Amino acid sequence: LSVAAVGLIFIPAVKAGYNPPLTGFLVCVLISFVTLFMVSADRKKAVPAFFGASGGLLASLVFAEIFMRLASTGGFSGQPMQMLNYFILHYPTGVKDARGIFLAGVMIGAAGVVMDVAISISSSLKAIKEESPSVTRAALFGRGMNIGRDIIASMANSLLFAYAGGALFLILSRSYFSYSFSQLLNSEWFTVMLIEIMSGTVAIIATVPVTSFFGAEILDKS
Predict the structure, then answer these.
(1) By the 8 A CB rule, do 215 and 148 touch?
(2) From CA 7, how far away is CA 13, in angstroms rounded?
(3) How far apart are the C-alpha atoms of 202 and 158, rounded to whole Å?
(4) What integer pLDDT is reported at residue 26 of this predicted model?
(5) Tens of pLDDT, residues 38-64
(6) What is the pLDDT of residues 4-33, one digit of tens each?
(7) Which of 136, 188, 200, 213 has the most CB atoms in a 10 Å sphere around its CB?
(8) Contact assessment for residue 81 and residue 59, using Cβ atoms and an 8 Å cutoff
(9) What is the DSSP letter of 75?
(10) How far is CA 193 from CA 37, 73, 132, in A?
(11) How far is CA 51 from the centre of its chain?
(12) Rounded Cα–Cα distance for residues 133 and 137 (Å)
């Protein structure tokens, strides 16, 4: 279903001229909704996880834009992006902005990890509430934040290894040349990889308090 949402909704919509980041966000929210409510039929777990995942996705989009502006990059580090930008500039395609495709790609790349964090915290809070029905809303929120703090480091590493693994051939090929550390930091492909990792990490960090807040609110009223 997730692959179908990207292939049958996102790509046709972008080719038809719709805004890539906004379309990507709406498609990711749809994927989150379907996935989380299929994984957990329990509303008390699925609803906080959905709001947390949506908040994390929005954060990844906003901070990817900020990081791109700070780095003064358009995300054209790879041959596929450069080819897409060439088609946009020289042919009548429906796509208006290759930069927007990159932003949407960053968010889509972080979607799976964000949903993982959200449902993990939400499920943990529900288990705590079932074991200790008298636990307060503030205590639930605090425990959600503590659980999230433990998750953040491992999930950030997951993003790091995923993107570094994808760029391994570039890193290895550059090792045959006398690249200094400053040259590496100023290479656009390396900057783009850092933007992807940092935006995904921000998404994970933002997911924790949002999921904890809604989880505490919903469980406290149950």
Answers:
(1) no
(2) 10
(3) 13
(4) 96
(5) 877 788 899 999 999 999 999 999 999
(6) 999 999 999 988 888 999 999 999 999 999
(7) 200
(8) no
(9) S
(10) 32, 12, 43
(11) 14
(12) 11
As a 3-state breakdown, the chain gives helix, strand, coil percent values, each rounded to 5, of: 85, 0, 15
CB 102 within 8 A of CB 193: no
CA distances from 118 to 12, 114, 130, 171 (A): 29, 6, 19, 32
Position 127, amino acid: A
Query: Residue with structure tokens 């009548």?
Result: 92
pTM: 0.86
CA distance 157 to 108: 17
Residue pLDDT, tens place only, 109-163: 899 999 999 999 999 999 999 999 999 999 999 999 999 998 888 888 888 887 7
Torsional sign, CA 117, 146, 122, 30: negative
Distance CA 122, CA 151 (A): 13
The Cα 72–Cα 177 span in angstroms is 25
Cα separation of 104 and 61, whole Å? 7
Question: Rg for the chain (alpha carbons), in Å?
Answer: 19
